[in-house]
């Protein structure tokens, strides 16, 4: 993690060294590092047996991540006020901790053994069960421990949010947006779970999940949360909503493309996991709609099959390309980027240029 230096107190009126994302990310990391160290000490004081929980969570946070959500909080505040305040880093960090909670639970739901090149939290706790010589089923210990670790981080996100020394009414406004963010991501996650088992899923169904599970959660609500900390401006709120929904859905679509067609050495994740889970992405749904009967038979046999092989995954990828599904999604991405650009064209710099740069980071990426 980044170590705090005297430059971290510098007001970020303009894009800082490292760009609009990197400059904010370093400051948020410093806040998270101090906060997590204090929480780990508290857990150790409660009982030393809790140390593996704190270690696994801290390792996950420290292992990387783009810090996009905190950056959107920061620049939402900057767009609303024309200035910055270091206290905003705490609500921004709270959104990153909420994301950490979501990753921990998502890895359990998806049965993913790794995250960011490390054992997932539930995997780390399973390994601790084995190494400590505890009795019982280590797999279920890991699952149960991972659920509880995620719940703990959810609580910590609230604690970090409430630590911000900002005006009471501003905090109340932002707290309402934070509540919306959390409710929507839970709803989106459930709908995603349901979508995987829905026989007649449509592209509209998939886009709805993308909006709730990713779009609002990653971009729109963090932006609005930052703006709420700065004041009340219905016109700005609408601008950020239009921009955020477009960039947020595009962010998820790019994730879907990279998850299926990206280079695993670059993305850190192979396509086999998503295929075995039966994720009904826009890519898969459009491919199935345009497929020949023989291609559709392959898709129906492979997607959602927990025993799917790498050869099966290669066949699915080829069908996605051959049916034009990849081009279809790329065209949709281009349209969403254009919508986002138009939404903020009336904003002044540096806010406008910062938001456009963040949009590029979110959408024009290879990992």
TrEMBL record:
It comes from Euzebya pacifica. This is Geranylgeranyl diphosphate synthase. InterPro entries: Isoprenoid_synthase_dom_sf, Polyprenyl_synt, Polyprenyl_synt_CS. GO terms for molecular function: metal ion binding; prenyltransferase activity. One of its GO terms (biological process) is isoprenoid biosynthetic process. Its cofactor is Mg(2+). Gene3D superfamilies: Farnesyl Diphosphate Synthase (1.10.600.10). Belongs to the FPP/GGPP synthase family. It comes from the Bacteria. Keywords: Magnesium, Metal-binding, Transferase. The keyword Transferase applies. It holds the Pfam family polyprenyl_synt. The keyword DNA damage does not apply.
